What does this fold into?
Amino acid sequence: MAKQEIILAIESSCDDTSISILKGSKIIANVTSTSMSQHRKYGGIVPELASRAHCSDIDKVCSQALAEAKITLKDVNYIAYTSEPGLVGSLHVGKVFANELATLLKVPTIKVNHMMGHAFSYFVDHNTKQLKFPILSLVVSGGHTFIARATSPNNFKYLNESIDDAAGEALDKIGRFLGLEYPGGISIDNIYSDKKLLELAPNKPVDAPFTFSGIKTAALNMINSYKMKKKKVPVKQIASSSLEWITNDLVRKLQHYLSKYKDTKMVLVGGGVSANKLLRKKLGQIKKVKVYYPTLKYTNDNAAMIATYAMLKK
Ligand code: KG4
Ligand code: ZN
It folds into this structure.
């Protein structure tokens, strides 16, 4: 791609309507509007509300992004958008908007897999010259948890992925059982303490697929047993012990694949849960290979990571 070409990227897979503009290899605008406050009272994302919010916000977000970048639509060379995975209605709003813009401007579209966006999100604001393959990618989000090996941006092989609740989803549900504010992942991060941790569930073998529904059920059973005995539920202890289990599982599995793939040059972490302080602390103990994390504002869903991956995969 010629150096100063412009990609306008759209992310609308869940509750964030985000548009970012990348010029050459630099993000020059990133505007996000979220419908999170509308979902909070339901304790989880309501897909229809999310789609409606995308419909009403996407035009405004686009205008703001163009203004922030100090460009007009006719300067845009490519339209990138999240094509999968995500909420069907939400994805559809982004796709239709992207295709209409592309038709109007007579420019090509670039479809981006949301998970690839998270996987390479470290490069949103870091030089891609640092990118050295093979990489191991650990993505921990609300919808997915996986470890993958990539030998190029387009050659990405899943080594392990969640077969039920993703790590973020389990944390959100445990948070809800405990009466914590949604999203539970953030609430649990904020109240975590390593004091008096409980053994909620046995460890899973390192080569077993990621599964977090068991720890969720173990936390629920523990809460119910306190309630049945009319005893005060130890919210902080159960929340912290669940997070401890989940982060231990993530780190043990990552270490397993690092021993298996000794040629790994870098570990790239991404996704909403990669903001977690305990997870970062534990991953920081890995010495064999350097672990790279996205800047905090790019751990959650954003279009800057979609633009960045579109640039890498072109
Ligand atoms: O990547 P993301 O924004 O959306 C998906 O693609 O799913 O991830 C959202 C998830 C939610 O489950 C949320 O609870 C979790 O990321 N999350 C966190 C933290 N910040 C967001 N989990 C633990 N600690 C955090 N600091
Ligand atoms: Zn995401």
